[in-house]
Design goal:
Elements: H1 6-15, H2 26-39, E1 46-53, E2 59-63, H3 75-87, E3 94-99, E4 102-104, E5 107-109, E6 112-115, H4 132-143, E7 148-149, E8 153-156, E9 194-197, E10 207-210, E11 218-226, E12 232-236, E13 243-251, E14 257-259, H5 266-280, E15 284-285, E16 289-291, E17 306-312, H6 316-325, H7 329-344, H8 349-362, H9 386-397, H10 402-405, E18 432-438, E19 441-449, E20 455-463, H11 473-485
Helix pairs in contact: 1-2, 1-11, 3-6, 3-7, 3-8, 6-7, 7-8
């Protein structure tokens, strides 16, 4: 029976050994690991671990590698891998702007219609101002001689299904940025970035600055200013409304606070901001901002509409980098629907899921041996094993997309969700991995190079822990740091 490499490493972590000359028999090592798991912060936790050498194929450590775990944002590994191999690194989203009616003198007598297929990039990660594409469209309209729109601004979002939430998402998180709805038309990642600047004295109030000013949402400031104690605020948006309620106590002179509540109905948000942007650029709009769902059986009539302009997103490789490094849930949900639309002609999660399942089958993962319930990992209905994640990681390592794929992951101690982890260790700038966190769930899966030069693939999935998520890093990060530092061999 093959001995396992990390049976060496866990005892070194827990008993504080710092030299590569310490060796243990298999029985001694097993006893130490079992004892330390029982005595650790995670007595009640369910661990799944697989660490394997990509160079030799040898399994260095395993624990419950075939058992099912909620993966949290490790779910994005499946979504992103499928998107890359199916759509290709240069895929772009296309937004089209039509009008119906006619242009008389400088007036568009008719509606301006925007048809989207999910472009998530109208945000500050791609533009200085999320409204930049809208301002560019306004400039184009002015060049066409259009100074007034005597009609409505209609958002056609029918290329995607209307349900913008994932299956099994927690209701109490839907007003947060990480649970923002996905849709065919999206701006500012379907939330509002708020900067809250505390006053310097009791006579002033909290200054609230949204990164997009719009009449689409209402900010309700219920905070109390105090010169004692600590700042404690909460922000919530009652479901189905766009009333952003800020409550709590703000201490004078305290630090600036940043929060990002989600908004409801991204399409109507999109058309409202578009209308406001056109007006800001000097174009008169007499009609309303409308979601096409307000019309019964809406269908864009391309025979009686004229294409004015179109907008292409940055290439998919740049979008997927944001998805993985920032762990952007809305991007992941968008990608599943995009897969459904581009492969099966229907922009729904159900159709996108079929594409994901097909790709995973090609990777050697049989259908119905896992549960893929959303694209991002927010759902608690997702289940997969560490071994299945490692299969995906190995398949991508051997694919034509490896050079792109490896650039998508957060880098330990450098960027993304690993920016502040494993610093000042041999794992820094070595480990590339996808993190995952929801309540009582933690995940970390990816690649690193061991001190002996071997390339290693790993997956840690932890369910049911009752401590802070950061506490899991005491184990996972230490294991990876030791692999990076010590080329240990188990004593025969």
């Amino acid at each position: 029976m093959k001995k396992y490499f990390l049976l060496m490493i866990f005892p070194l972590i827990f008993v504080g050994c710092s030299s590569a000359s310490n060796f243990y028999s298999l029985n001694e090592t097993t006893e130490l690991i079992e004892q330390k798991f029982q005595d650790s912060l995670f007595t009640n936790a369910h661990w799944g671990v697989l660490v394997e050498s990509l160079s030799s194929g040898e399994i260095w450590y395993e624990q419950n590698k075939d058992k099912m775990f909620m993966p949290a944002s490790n779910e994005k590994i499946m979504t992103t891998a499928t998107s890359l191999v199916t759509l290709g690194e240069n895929f772009t989203f296309e937004t089209k702007v039509f009008f119906n009616g006619e242009i008389i003198d400088s007036v568009l007598k008719g509606n301006l219609i925007v048809q989207g297929n999910g472009d998530p990039t109208f945000y500050t990660k791609f533009f200085n101002d999320p409204r930049t594409p809208f301002f560019n469209w306004a400039d184009s309209l002015l060049k066409f001689g259009i100074k007034e729109i005597d009609g409505n601004i209609i958002g056609d979002d029918n290329l995607f299904e209307d349900n913008g939430y994932g299956n099994g998402w927690s209701f109490d998180g839907l007003d947060s940025w990480y649970s923002a709805e996905s849709g065919a038309l999206q701006i500012n990642e379907n939330y509002i970035d708020l900067q809250l600047i505390p006053p310097k004295n009791l006579n002033d109030s909290l200054q609230i600055i949204p990164n997009i000013k719009s009449n689409y949402f209402t900010i309700i400031n219920n905070t109390i200013i105090s010169d004692t104690g600590k700042t404690r605020i909460s922000i919530n948006r009652p479901f189905g409304t766009n009333n952003i309620i800020i409550s709590g106590v703000v201490k004078t002179g305290s630090r600036i606070i940043e929060r990002s509540p989600s908004i409801s109905n991204p399409t109507l948000f999109y058309t409202t901001v578009l209308k406001e942007s056109l007006i800001e650029k000097g174009i008169i709009v007499t009609g309303k901002a409308i979601d096409c769902d307000e019309f019964n059986n809406w269908q864009l009539d391309t025979n009686n509409s004229t294409l004015l302009l179109s907008h292409s997103s940055p290439p998919l490789r740049d979008i997927l980098k944001g998805l993985m490094k920032r762990s952007q849930n809305m991007y992941a949900e968008t990608m599943v629907k995009t897969l459904g639309l581009n492969v099966n002609g229907i922009g729904s999660f159900r159709e996108g899921k079929k594409v994901v399942e097909s790709v995973l089958t090609n990777f050697g993962i049989a259908p119905k041996t896992y549960a893929y319930s959303d694209g991002s990992g927010l759902s608690r209905y997702n289940y997969i094993s560490p071994q299945q994640i490692v299969k995906i990681l190995k398949a991508m390592k051997n694919s034509q997309y490896w050079n792109i794929w490896k650039e998508l992951f957060p880098i330990a101690g450098v960027d993304g969700t690993l920016k502040n982890r494993m610093k000042n260790t041999k794992a820094e700038a070595n480990v590339i991995a996808k993190t995952g966190t929801i309540s009582n769930v933690r995940g970390l899966s990816g690649y690193l190079k061991a001190a002996n030069g071997e390339e290693v693939v790993f997956s840690f999935l932890i369910n049911g822990h009752l401590k802070n998520s950061e506490d899991t890093e005491l184990i996972t990060d230490s294991v990876l740091s030791l692999i990076a530092e010590y080329p240990l061999k188990l004593k025969k």
